[in-house]
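Morning F.,

Quick status update on the modeling queue. The single chain you submitted on Monday has been processed. Sequence for confirmation:
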Amino acid sequence: MVSLARAERKAARLVRDVKDIDLDDLYDQLENLRDYVHELSQNVGKSASRQYGRARDYASEAAQEAEELMKDNLAASLVLALGLGLVVGYLIRRSTE
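Structure tokens below.
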């Protein structure tokens, strides 16, 4: 993985050497910088993809666990749903009056 310290060293070296750079050297350094930024963006993309996969797996597991709990406690789930429905209906009716 690409480190921030490495990027800072490269940037400092570029700034320090600006006085003594010829045009070909400048193009080479720009090409190296472009490659470095490309590598960095690929690494960030891979990391974001892994984190997204982990979050998706976690959410899927949580949904499966909730479904299993509802199936195991079917009577309690039905009573809870009925109670929530009554409360929401009462609040809606009350707000329209």
